[in-house]
Amino acid sequence: MKSIQQLAATAALVTVALGLGGCAGMSQQDKNTAIGAGAGAVVGGVLTGGSTAGTVGGAAVGGVIGNQVKPPK
Protein backbone atom coordinates (compact mmCIF):
# COMPACT_ATOMS: atom_id res chain seq x y z
CA MET A 1 0.00 0.00 0.00
CA LYS A 2 2.88 2.34 0.75
CA SER A 3 4.24 1.98 -2.78
CA ILE A 4 0.86 3.07 -4.23
CA GLN A 5 0.94 6.19 -2.05
CA GLN A 6 4.50 6.94 -3.14
CA LEU A 7 3.54 6.47 -6.78
CA ALA A 8 0.56 8.80 -6.37
CA ALA A 9 2.69 11.46 -4.66
CA THR A 10 5.34 11.24 -7.37
CA ALA A 11 2.72 11.49 -10.11
CA ALA A 12 1.20 14.54 -8.41
CA LEU A 13 4.59 16.26 -8.17
CA VAL A 14 5.36 15.56 -11.83
CA THR A 15 1.96 16.90 -12.84
CA VAL A 16 2.48 20.10 -10.85
CA ALA A 17 5.97 20.60 -12.31
CA LEU A 18 4.71 20.17 -15.87
CA GLY A 19 1.75 22.42 -15.19
CA LEU A 20 3.94 25.20 -13.85
CA GLY A 21 6.22 24.89 -16.86
CA GLY A 22 3.23 25.52 -19.09
CA CYS A 23 2.55 28.85 -17.34
CA ALA A 24 5.66 30.56 -18.73
CA GLY A 25 3.91 32.25 -21.65
CA MET A 26 0.68 33.11 -19.86
CA SER A 27 -0.52 36.64 -19.18
CA GLN A 28 -1.04 37.71 -15.57
CA GLN A 29 -4.81 37.45 -16.01
CA ASP A 30 -4.43 33.88 -17.33
CA LYS A 31 -2.25 32.98 -14.33
CA ASN A 32 -4.78 34.49 -11.93
CA THR A 33 -7.54 32.47 -13.59
CA ALA A 34 -5.56 29.23 -13.29
CA ILE A 35 -4.64 29.90 -9.65
CA GLY A 36 -8.24 30.78 -8.82
CA ALA A 37 -9.54 27.62 -10.50
CA GLY A 38 -7.03 25.45 -8.65
CA ALA A 39 -7.75 27.02 -5.29
CA GLY A 40 -11.49 26.89 -5.92
CA ALA A 41 -11.30 23.21 -6.79
CA VAL A 42 -9.48 22.43 -3.55
CA VAL A 43 -11.88 24.47 -1.42
CA GLY A 44 -14.94 23.09 -3.21
CA GLY A 45 -13.70 19.54 -2.77
CA VAL A 46 -12.97 20.04 0.91
CA LEU A 47 -16.28 21.74 1.67
CA THR A 48 -18.31 19.02 -0.05
CA GLY A 49 -16.33 16.04 1.20
CA GLY A 50 -14.66 15.40 -2.15
CA SER A 51 -17.74 15.33 -4.35
CA THR A 52 -17.16 15.85 -8.04
CA ALA A 53 -19.84 18.51 -8.32
CA GLY A 54 -18.33 20.50 -5.45
CA THR A 55 -14.85 20.30 -6.91
CA VAL A 56 -15.96 21.32 -10.40
CA GLY A 57 -18.22 24.05 -9.04
CA GLY A 58 -15.42 25.40 -6.86
CA ALA A 59 -13.05 25.41 -9.82
CA ALA A 60 -15.54 27.32 -11.94
CA VAL A 61 -16.24 29.94 -9.29
CA GLY A 62 -12.54 30.27 -8.41
CA GLY A 63 -11.62 30.66 -12.07
CA VAL A 64 -14.14 33.46 -12.55
CA ILE A 65 -12.93 35.26 -9.43
CA GLY A 66 -9.29 34.82 -10.43
CA ASN A 67 -10.06 36.16 -13.90
CA GLN A 68 -11.57 39.32 -12.45
CA VAL A 69 -8.70 40.09 -10.05
CA LYS A 70 -6.69 43.05 -11.27
CA PRO A 71 -3.01 43.27 -10.30
CA PRO A 72 -2.02 46.36 -8.29
CA LYS A 73 -0.48 49.17 -10.30
Low-confidence stretches: none
Give me the secondary-structure category.
mainly alpha
* Percent range of helical residues: over 70%
Overall tally of domains: 1
Radius of gyration: 15 Å
β-strand amount? under 5%
Number of strands: 0
Major sheet summary line: none
Average predicted confidence as pLDDT: 83
| Rough outline | flat
Number of helix segments? 3
* Spatial separation of the terminal alpha carbons: 50 Å
Order of helices and strands: HHH
Q: How would you portray this structure in words?
A:
It is a single chain. The protein is mainly alpha-helical and 73 residues long. The chain has one domain. It is 78% helix and 0% strand. The protein has helices at residues 2-21, 28-47, 52-68. Helix 2 packs antiparallel against helix 3. The longest helix is centred in the first third of the chain and has 20 residues, at 2-21. It starts with a helix and ends in a 5-residue tail after the last helix. InterPro entries: Gly_zipper_2TM_dom. It comes from Massilia polaris. Residues 33-69 form the Glycine zipper 2TM domain. This is Glycine zipper 2TM domain-containing protein.
